[in-house]
Amino acid sequence: MTGGGWRSETGDPDGSPEVNERLSQPSLPPNERLSQPSLPFSRPSLPSLPQTTKLSDSDAAYPITDPMPPGRKKRFRSLLIGGASVTFAIVVASGVLVASRQSDEPVAELAGNLFAAGLAGSADGRQLELNGVAAMGATVAVAGGEDADSGYRTEFFLSKDAGRTFARAQVRTPKGEPPVVGEIPRRLAAGTGGWVALGDRVGGSVVWTSPDGAAWTRQPDATASLAFGPRDRVADVAWTGNGFTAVGQTSAKGDFTDASPVVWLSRDGRSWERRAGWRLHPPTGGTLALTDVASVKNAIVVRGESSIKPYDITWRSTDAGNTWQAFAVPGKSRKPELTFAATATTMLAVRQEGSRATTYTSPDGVRWTTAAKIEMPGFRSLLRLTATSQTAVAAIETDSGVRLLRSTDGRSWQPAGTTADGVEVRDATAVADNTVVVGADAAHSGTGALLAVRDKAGKDVPTGIPDTTGSGKVVDALGTADGRVVAVGGANGDAAVWTSADGETWRRVQDKEKALAGQGRQRLIGVTPGFAGWLAVGSSGRTPSRPLVVTSADGESWRRADGVAAFQPGGTDPLIARGVAAGPDGYVIVGEDGFGAGTWWSADLKTWERGTPAGEDNLVGTPTTRRWMNSVTSGLFGFVAAGGVTDPNAYGGVFIRRPTVWISPDGRKWSLIRLPIPAGVNEGWLSHIASHDDVLVTAGTAVTGNGTGTAAFGYASVDGGRSWQSISLPVVAGEQSSVTAVAVTPRGFVVAGTVGRPGDVVIWTSADGRSWQPEQPRGSAMSGPGEQRLTAFTAVDGELVGVGSTATGQGDEPTVWRRPLSSDETGTP
Known about the structure:
Layout: H1 17-23, E1 89-93, E2 96-100, E3 107-110, E4 126-136, E5 139-148, E6 151-159, E7 167-168, E8 170-172, E9 184-191, E10 194-201, E11 204-210, E12 215-218, E13 232-239, E14 244-250, E15 260-266, E16 273-275, E17 288-296, E18 299-306, E19 312-317, E20 325-327, E21 338-342, E22 347-353, E23 356-362, E24 369-375, E25 379-387, E26 392-398, E27 401-407, E28 414-419, E29 424-431, E30 434-440, E31 449-454, E32 473-481, E33 484-491, E34 494-500, E35 507-508, E36 523-530, E37 533-539, E38 547-552, E39 558-560, E40 575-583, E41 586-593, E42 596-602, E43 609-610, E44 612-613, E45 627-635, E46 638-647, E47 656-664, E48 669-674, E49 681-692, E50 695-704, E51 709-717, E52 725-727, E53 737-745, E54 748-755, E55 760-766, E56 773-775, E57 787-796, E58 799-808, E59 811-820
């Protein structure tokens, strides 16, 4: 949510959760970034392969020969990565774990102390969001996370004094390990049987449970999350007397134009039973999504939102969800406008009616009574209705901000305070005499999160969330030229550039021109040297999203270059830069332009023009036929970009992401080639590409199984991208894998990825782009608890240098990995 193949409204290169919400497709794993070093090498011949894919200007599928046929091999001298075991000597420096070099073995460092962060920026390198809140007695739990540059990190917070103070709750797997990055808790519920949170991850849902709100366990997918499919959306969860009930919708197509209802049932929150609309049928010709669930006594009530009349549809079950009976709440819906909640004794239904709302109450979900009218100046809408066993809370949007109301019976409502105008209320609860509200507050909060506590009189109760953890730094890409290594990424909310002469000691450049700072989060994700100087691209944090483009003559002094017309979006569609390359014909940036692929070309880093399609829809996309480019490489063939498209015609109308490359002889006009989805997977996209001479390697991540697994896959071309053959990137059978980098080196090609869940680093190497060997480095920053990844490589002073990150639920650090090259490896192949 990421790196995603989908466009992002915010321009966040991680692939934001909002994209997943809108498109109901799993986003790319976080931090899958361009990693294309500039390395000097000669151009040896490689085996010729049959041209099985012919380039044309049409947007069509092409055949591919698989596997690559054997042929005469003129190899690079030997594999870049040796098969020797890794030896580490562990020392502690400034509180950071560092692996020091022993002999000629590879070494890895947790490098938070190597990359200076500089002064605190606008968002401290991350953004905190609070999505759900629940209470039992005087205990309050809040669920959300830190949207850090290195990936989304799950967070739970606990208060034992009715919201006056909060502490960070412990989050672990059943094995006691820190949780992985990229999992977002969204819905929270509490009852006498404990606490449960439901959320999102790539390819599916996540379940967390807690006995007391203080210690949370991320439940294994095999026992919990598999009941929630990759095309499901969970809208609400509640304790319903004998267990938990969750409701939502599912879509066979993936775009929710065919939404149908889903109910999930669980006795303990750990294992769930899925019941997909088996007794809850949508109106003929319409769609139906369940949005609310509540319980009173032995009755469970769910509410559905239909696309046609009747807009609000309700059901009731008195046998723990086994059978359901439809019922009606008084009044008529002119649009979806009904909301449910329940205390221990009373079911409440609130119906919006223009500039006011009406409350109905029921002791059993069958007999309903008109209880009260909610009227106030500037009434706009009911944002949220929740209830504990004792008290209901309503959050009302008005012209002057959000007003909070409380009631114990639904008949009498008392003011409970206000929040500032412009905040986004996502959840609320009552605890003792206090009311706790969570959500987003970009205007008034330095973290971007909303946490408001109001007392019985509606006055503010000072409170706060503990400080975030982790380094706030991320290193995404590397480039090398003229004895200088340049690393780009982000630190403390601003874009950052570091330079090094040896790949071991790094210095952050001084941003004298203020090119790397700005409103919102700034981050660079790609960099390349060229004949006119250095070019780096990323995200600017502006809305609608526009690329951050900076240039430098020497890698030290950087200037903004994105003020020209070519980088200005048309309307509200975002422009996103994801990859960059330089060649004899100039510089190319690739990414996204609204629903389509975006490209930019410059001959001199001074003037820029937009790329054009060679065929009618080679670049232009629609909501159902999206195009996006993630990475680009250059050579004597011109430029080749890698990414994906959505195909609405595959598999009976389900939106499938397909791996795609684009070819341009000059960086200006682009032709599209769709590559076939590998056998045994549902869909896939390409995230990285690199080239040597006319040999190109591109790789990405495929979705497997029922949409919850991932697998690394790739293709190679020996004729400048005109024809392609699939390649095998093997891992241990049954393990999930993904791709995080592709690079060319003095010895051949290297593909980096992750294997397992959470991911450990895996490296595939090939001397010819044809045969690939896997290796899993061991030790600090390469394997173990948390998510480890390498995202870029370059070679300097006889060493291969890689950068990446190590991230857990407790923090994150940049990673530097180095492998000395032997004497014959440093010469020209």
